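pasting for the record
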Amino acid sequence: MLDLAGPPSPAMALASATPGGGGDLRHTPKPWNDAAAAAHSLRTDTDTAKGTLTSAHAGIDTETEGLLSVAALKTVLTSWEERLAAVRDECASLEPALRAVARTMGSTDHGVKSSLTRYADPAPADPKGR
């Protein structure tokens, strides 16, 4: 038979109501370094694409003289070159920042662990536990 108050409301349950952590939270730099590698790869690929786009349109002024669409094509080309340059530059700034997070998190984890070791099961003063 259910209590008259009904089942406990999910809003009333605290996320921290479970027993304490088991000390198994570990930092790994791999996700941060993987993201940095992806940023590096995207930066390189974007730069290559921008170069290819630019070289593919080289000489457009002389080869298409008299066509009305040349001005529109130049506008689109400039817009894409600017976009690709912005992506390249953003990725170039992200890569070192992501690698720095990996290093910082590792240093922080080590520092916290070192500072807490003095509280973990201290050995008794003498063999009889006094």
